[in-house]
Amino acid sequence: MTLRGLIKHLNVKMTPLILAIVLTIIMTLSSLGLLALSGWFLSAASIAGLAALSGAFGFNILQPSSMIRGLAVSRTLSRYVERLLSHDATLRVVVKLRRFIFDGLLDGIGHRPSNDQEALDRLVQDASVVEGALLRTLLPLVGAVIAGLFVPILAAIVAPSAVIPAFIPLAVFIGTLVVRRPGYRALAEQIDVQSRRARNRAIALADGRYELQLAFDDNELSELTRDAYKPLADLRLAKVSRELTDKVCMGVAHAVSLVWIATLPIDLPILVALLISSLGVGELLIPGILVSFESRRVELSLARLPHTQDAPEAQSQSDGLNVSDLQFSPTPDSDPLCAPFSFQLSNGHHIRLTGPSGVGKTTCLKTIIGLLPAYSGSVTKPDTVGLVEQTPWLPSDVLWRSLTLGLPEQPNESEFWRALQVVELDEWVNNLPNQERTWIGTDGVMPSGGQWRRLAIARLILQKPQLALLDEPTEGLEEELAYRLMERLVEEFKDHILIVVSHRDEATRFIPNEIRLTP
């Protein structure tokens, strides 16, 4: 995917982007023109003042001073409007891009993230990189090229002998971009990889902090954290070092250019104008050095976004569940986990999905429900489906909203409490500080693992799907509670299709029919 293709797909208006580029050119020319004219005016006025002492005086200060004011106003106005338009265009892209990425993650188009962390990286980091593409790549490059051409063009008009030395900074800038481009792009790729690895390491260390405290002391834990970020820190230091080297080269180029121009037989006001504008060029060329690095970051982020030419493959809908020669895999590039299998279920049919460890029972559920693409075969399923995973997700929110978020119909009070009674959490909720209005999750009451799973089952009951899938719903529960819960689930979904992944006795007792997956 290209940035232009993404902007076209998002239907973002190009007019603000084009105006931002035009205003960047105007702002650059106004800034350098202001420096050159101010230098010429000050030196010419000084010479005129000295000439007045000898009786010869003839200098019009009104015209150049009015031009200086005009350039100052032009620079300020163009800079303000350019910032307004570029940030407005960027924020418009932000709104549509975040929605585009989130829809892509939900629909499964493009390169599917292998885990939740990658999905979060795509939604946050990759989106931020793409959103800032205009500000980090195109505008700095345009400004640098216009600035590099300003002094040579000015010299060609007022002092042709200074054209060659005036071209030196731009020539070195272009040479630096060309020669150093492969290194910056490789560095961007390495930093991209190590950034994700460092975050994953840090998250893993945070998740295992209690176990790690038993094996390591505080100093050793600090060392583990430093080691997690050391490869990334080394790469960022290498980037700073490379950038500093390029800035030194640019500084030497400017010094050579300034000394060469200063030794030429040019009138003093014109010489001062060329020298001062050359100094201003240096500040505008520096941001352009990192264009290769930033553009590669944008390319890497674009490659991980959903592809605009792909469309989500909608599974066929039917009253029952029809699985035909299905094979599945955890990622699009991996081999299938099990042999092809087929089955048909209609309303009121309940089955257990079993098989040896590693055969992909959880992956099978996600493939049936449409969260993962099938490796081969086909699935037709009812209109409404629901899934309770081994580690279910519920939003941190007021309990009522946490259990009813996204439901096609909001339940009434009696339906809500009945669902809690089925999973035997009604008494627990009654004892909460604000009952069903209590904040659950982060910064609130944190349920245990078993309670969290039963809350997710209660949400499934409120959803009332035609096809319900549960992955180890009674795992970690006491035997008596597990038996009661499984019996109630079978009764609750007696007119629906129910698929349960479980090897426990209560599942075998209440759901005798079995489909066994084989590698």
* N- to C-terminal distance: 37 Å
Question: Average pLDDT value?
Answer: 81
Which class of secondary structure composition applies to the elements?
alpha/beta
The strands making up the biggest β-sheet line up spatially as 6-9-10-4-11
Proportion of helical residues: 55-70%
Tally of helical runs: 17
Number of strand segments: 11
Rounded radius of gyration (Å): 33 Å
Order of helices and strands: HHHHHHHHHHEEEEHEEEHHHEHEHEHE
Shape: elongated
Beta-strand content estimate: 5-15%
Which consecutive residue ranges, at least 5 long each, have pLDDT under 50? 308-312
Please outline the major beta sheet.
5 strands, parallel
Quick structural gist:
With about 525 residues, the protein is of the alpha/beta class.
Describe the structure.
With 519 residues, this protein is an alpha/beta fold. 63% of the residues lie in helices and 9% in strands. The chain is built from 17 helices and eleven strands. Strands 6-9-10-4-11 form a five-stranded parallel beta sheet, with helices on both faces. Helix 16 links the parallel strand 9 and strand 10. Helix 2 runs antiparallel to helix 9 and helix 6 packs parallel to helix 9. The protein is elongated and about 110 Å long. About 1% of the residues have low confidence.
What characteristics describe this protein?
519 residues, five-stranded parallel β-sheet, alpha/beta, 17 helices
